[in-house]
Structures are given as C-alpha cells and as structure tokens.
C-alpha cells in the first residue's frame, strides 16, 4: 500500500493532538462500561424476566446467556421511502441471528423525518434537532443492558448521524450499520431540475411538476441523487461500519438480502466473548473520522456533513473542525460526478464502480487510512464489490478501469485535483462553500445584496421580478439558535433561473443548503449566526458583498467605521406551531454549526 499522503497524515495528527484529552476520557468511559456497566449478567431476575417476556420463542436461548443478544435499533416508517424497506428486516434478522447461534430483539425505534417532505415548510425547522432526538432515542433503546451488540437500521439525512451519536455512547458494544439501498432510477435529474425551474418561472403548472416529482421519487429506497442520505452511506463505508460495499444495492434484490444476512452473521463474530472483539468506540477513531471526511470530499458529497461529522466525532471524544476539511480538500481529488455535481444518479455511480472503486482508488493514492479497525476485515476489503455466485454472496476484485469515466475516475486522472470544499472568512464571519458543482467563472461574485429573513420572502421577491439582476441573496436568522437551521433547498430553482438568465448570483446564509447544493455559489453555515449578533445581522439592502472562493473571502464592502457603528437587525419572533415551540430549549442551548449544531453536545460538555 502506498505511503499516506503527508497532508492527510498532518491533518490526522492535528486532530489526534487536539483530541488527546477528550479521546482518553472517552476510551476510559467505554472501558469502564465494558467492565462494570449495565449488562445482562448484572441484571436481577425480575429485570431479565421483563426483557425476555416479549420474545418467548427465544427466551430459553437468551436465558442461558451463553451467546450474544443483538439489539436492533430501527428507523422504520413507511412514509419515508428510504426506510420503508426495513419493515421486514427485524423478523428476517432474528432468523439469520439464530443461524449464527445468537439472538436478536428490537431494542427500540427512532424517529425518521423526511426532509424531502418538509422542505420549505414549518416542519423543516425540526429537522436538525431530530438528529439529537434520534441520538437520545438510540441511547434509550440501548440503556436496558440486554444487548451484547447492536444493529443500526438507518440511512437518511439526520438518521445515520443520530444513530451513530447515540451508539457511540455505548462504544464498548460491537455494532454494524445496515442500509436498505437506493430506489431504482426514475426520470433523469436533469429533466427533474428543468421542470422545477420552469415551474419557478410560471411556465409549468402544479400537475406537471407533481408528475415530474413522482416520476423521480417513485418507489421504496433512498432518493437517487447524491445528497446527505447517500453521502452518509459513502462515509460509513470509508469508516468501515458496513459489511463491505453494502451501500447501494437496490431494495428487494437477492444481493440486498444477503448483504443484510452477512451483516448479522458478522456482528455475531465480533462480540466481546470471542477472539475478534471490535467495539464501535474503537472502530470510530481519529483515522476513521478522517477517512469519512476524505470520502465526502472525493465524491462531492453533502455540505450537511460539515455539521454532522463534527457532531459524530465529538461523541467519540474527537474534535474535528472546518479547517481540517479545508486542508484535506486541498489534496483530495474529486473522483465522482453524481447529481447535483453531475448528470448521473447513485445507481449510475454504483454501476461505474461505486463505493468500492472510490475506496480502492483513494487507498491506491495514499489518501485513506488503510489500517483502521473495521467491522469486517481490512479497509482494502471495502475496495471489492459484492456479487451473487448462484445463491452465495461473494466479493470480487473490480476491473482496473471505471465502468463510466464520465461518472467515476481513477485517482491519477480525477475530475479535479482538489475536493469541492472551501472555507470563506472576512468581516461577515466564517462560512463554508461547496464548489464541486459550481463553474469556475462563478467562484467570484461581487454584487449588491438583498436581505431576507426567510426563504418565502425570497420566492416572493423572485416572482415579483425584484431579483432579476446581479444580486447576492442574503437569508439570515436561519441558524441553529434562531429556528433550528432549516435547509433552504427551495431557493435552488429561483436562484438557478436567475443564473441561467446570465446574472451574477450567489447566496449567503447562516442556514443550510443541504446535499442539494449545486451550481449556484452558496456561502452557508455562516458563523456567528445572526441571532448571536453575527455580522450578517448588520447587512442592509444594497450593500456590496464579495464572495471569493479562490481567495477564501466573504466580506461586505462597507466602510470599516460605518460597519463598526451599525446596529444588528432585530430578530423575528420565534415561530409557533408544528411543534416548533417544543424545541425551544434545544435552540437556546445549541452549539455553533462548526461544533456540530447540537444542544445535546453543548450541554454535555463533549
């Protein structure tokens, strides 16, 4: 295996040194939980009887206590297409567990909201904090002391980060994440985006738009664009927390079923009573976190993970910041073009070689840690592709060449020599920008700004023709403390229309733009946020703003004395309804986006 790239080694060392005290405390915690925490041998007879009563068919095996009992934590619901396939998983997994000589129980369910359903509406303001709720729900599920290992069933945006955050507080247990796979391809992403833009201009009616959206999102499985959900899967593969290359096999196939069966069998082998103990708290170390960041950058993944990965890391005693992403991005090549960074969807990505090809190439280039502790074999095993040989699951070596070099390329001939992430800073604060889908001549935008306090105001101004010019659209009071940091994905069509008309357009916000961040330059996650008297609260309509992704600059071109004298704008009152008031405590105590945007972590001293 090639030597590790010096920049990857330096960033890893930077994270190790910064995290030394917190990581040591974390490892001490999980060691004490392993030795003296709550587990089945320590439970009283009445406690055990309660735990066994709901599963009479397994009670005798569980009572003997001589083998692992797997806790299944599931995010199943049938409103969320990606999680609908999980309906039958627990009963199947119980059968496969018995094949391996162990038992399994559903430890608990976690909420799984769909950002695709809530986009642009009040429910989206609950989205980020659903991740903390999922983490807490995972902890409740595993708190009973009935399990020697866990299977985590989740795929989408906040669900995988939340599951991992909760699971890592039980880091002495071996755990495997089990995906469900993407739906098969519908209409092309290019066609879907075109209909959305026509609708934004009033050239398509609601029925045409609905027909288009249903043709795109048409069945069970993950959405097929490369947003946060599918970026989750790429990162989990690079961390070695799936069985190898499990991410993108379609639901309802024999391959998908056998990958899940293999995950259960593998979990049975890595318990603490055997010779191959692999607790999740040891698997998720500094090197694994760096691998996740590199996989994200190499594939042009979701900007949401600039919030999620720091939050996951902190739950394992590891501190990663945006500077680490920025330094890695300078040396990690862009190997994939998947919508919104290209025309293909994740099924096309998988057909071209998928996660296995990406990991193999990154290892070949010395850009991934190959020596991490995975749940299954070595990191190199994640560079092989699963297949069915009759009724037998096997992993095969990939061809040397990509299956489609318009989608996926080798490490020595990438789409770009660097990843798609930059930090921007200046008198407006510190923000992130994803440039992997932005044309190079759009990396620098300087224009008068128009300031808004929510995305509906932007849409109204667009429809009124008020934005039909060079403009930097500013949407503030969208940070985690203000309103839960909703994604502003509804802004993509109107801003795309303005750009298509030839205008120089950009977005600046203390909110999120999601895994759908695309061709319009967007400075997002701006910190400090407006509610914390961040400089974005000083902007006024007509101020000239410069966004320069080449130089890493974001600034208001306002006289320094005038800027210093300005009073920040007053925040709108907190919104009520759709349960938003129930999350007020989380908003008030939330950490910054760079620290993970979490009330739970801020309060817990992570």
What's the domain count? 2
The outline comes out as globular
Computed CA radius of gyration, to the nearest angstrom = 24 Å
Global mean pLDDT? 94
The total count of helices amounts to 23
Tell me the total number of β-strands: 14
Strand order across the biggest sheet?
Answer: 7-8-12-11-10-9-13-14
> Based on the structure, what is the oligomeric state of the protein chains?
single chain
Described by strand count, sense and barrel closure, the largest sheet is: 8 strands, mixed
Beta-strand residue percentage: 5-15%
Percent in helix: 25-40%
Termini separation comes to 35 Å
Category by helix and strand content = alpha/beta
The poorly predicted ranges are none
Tell me what you see in this structure.
With about 600 residues, the chain is an alpha/beta fold. It folds into 2 domains: about 350 residues, no CATH class; about 150 residues, IlvD/EDD C-terminal domain-like (Glucose Oxidase, domain 1), CATH 3.50.30. About 40% of the residues lie in helices and about 15% in strands. The chain has 23 helices and 14 strands. Strands 7-8-12-11-10-9-13-14 form an 8-stranded mixed beta sheet. Strand 13 and strand 14 form a beta hairpin. Helix 7 packs parallel to helix 14. It is globular and about 75 Å long. The protein starts with 5 loop residues before the first helix and ends with a helix. Its EC number is 4.2.1.12. Pathway: Carbohydrate metabolism; Entner-Doudoroff pathway. It catalyses: 6-phospho-D-gluconate = 2-dehydro-3-deoxy-6-phospho-D-gluconate + H2O. Keywords: 4Fe-4S, Carbohydrate metabolism, Gluconate utilization, Iron, Iron-sulfur, Lyase, Metal-binding. One of its GO terms (molecular function) is phosphogluconate dehydratase activity.
């Amino acid at each position: 295996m090639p030597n590790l790239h010096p920049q990857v080694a330096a960033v890893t060392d930077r994270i190790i040194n910064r995290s030394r005290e917190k990581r040591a405390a974390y490892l001490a915690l999980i060691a004490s939980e392993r030795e003296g925490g709550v587990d089945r041998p320590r439970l009283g007879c009445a406690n055990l009887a309660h735990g066994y009563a709901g599963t009479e068919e397994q009670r005798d095996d569980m009572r003997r206590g001589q083998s692992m009992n797997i806790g299944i934590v599931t995010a199943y619901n049938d409103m969320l297409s990606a999680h609908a396939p999980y309906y039958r998983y627990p009963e199947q997994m119980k059968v496969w567990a018995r094949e391996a000589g162990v038992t399994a129980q559903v430890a608990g369910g976690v909420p799984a909201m769909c950002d695709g359903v809530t986009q642009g509406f009040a429910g989206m303001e609950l989205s980020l904090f659903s991740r903390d709720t999922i983490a807490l729900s995972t902890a409740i599920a595993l708190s009973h002391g009935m399990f020697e290992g866990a299977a985590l069933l989740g795929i989408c945006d906040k669900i995988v980060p939340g599951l991992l955050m909760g699971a890592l507080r039980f880091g002495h247990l071996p755990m495997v994440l089990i995906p469900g796979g993407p739906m098969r391809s519908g209409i092309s992403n290019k066609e879907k985006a075109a209909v959305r833009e026509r609708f934004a201009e009033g050239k398509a009616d609601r029925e045409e738009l609905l027909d288009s959206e249903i043709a795109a999102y048409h069945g069970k499985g993950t959405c097929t664009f490369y947003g946060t959900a599918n970026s989750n899967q790429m990162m989990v593969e690079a961390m070695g927390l799936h069985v190898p290359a499990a991410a993108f096999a379609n639901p309802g196939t024999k391959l998908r079923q056998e990958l899940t069966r293999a995950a259960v069998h593998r979990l049975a082998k890595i318990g603490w009573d055997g010779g191959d103990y692999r607790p999740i708290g040891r698997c998720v170390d500094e090197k694994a976190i760096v691998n996740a960041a590199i996989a994200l950058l190499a594939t042009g993944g979701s900007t949401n993970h600039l919030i999620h990965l720091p939050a996951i890391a902190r739950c394992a005693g590891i501190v990663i910041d945006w500077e680490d992403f920025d330094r890695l991005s300078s040396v990690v090549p862009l190997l994939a073009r998947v919508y919104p960074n290209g025309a293909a969807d994740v099924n096309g990505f998988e057909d071209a070689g998928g996660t296995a090809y990406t990991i193999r190439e990154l290892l070949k280039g010395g850009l991934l840690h190959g020596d991490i502790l995975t749940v299954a074999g070595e990191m190199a095993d994640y560079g092989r592709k699963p297949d069915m040989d009759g009724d037998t699951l096997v992993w095969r070596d990939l061809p040397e060449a990509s299956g489609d070099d318009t989608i996926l390329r080798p490490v020595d001939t990438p789409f770009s020599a660097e990843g798609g992430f930059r930090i921007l800073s200046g008198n407006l604060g510190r923000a992130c920008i994803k440039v992997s889908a932005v044309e190079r001549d759009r990396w620098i935008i300087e224009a008068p700004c128009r300031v808004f306090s929510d995305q509906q105001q932007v849409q109204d101004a667009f429809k009124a023709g008020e934005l039909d010019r060079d403009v930097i659209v500013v949407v503030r009071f969208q940070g985690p403390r203000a309103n839960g940091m909703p994604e502003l994905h509804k802004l993509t069509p109107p801003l795309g229309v303005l750009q298509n008309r030839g205008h120089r357009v950009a977005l600046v916000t203390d909110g999120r733009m999601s895994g759908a961040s695309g061709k319009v330059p967007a400075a997002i996650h701006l910190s400090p946020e407006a509610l914390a008297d961040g400089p974005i609260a000083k902007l006024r309509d007509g101020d000239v703003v410069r966004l320069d992704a080449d130089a890493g600059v974001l600034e208001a071109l306002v006289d320094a004395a005038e800027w210093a004298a300005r009073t920040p704008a007053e925040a709108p009152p907190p919104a009520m309804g759709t349960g938003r008031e129930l999350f007020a405590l989380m908003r008030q105590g939330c950490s910054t986006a760079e620290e993970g945007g979490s009330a739970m972590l801020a309060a817990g001293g992570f």
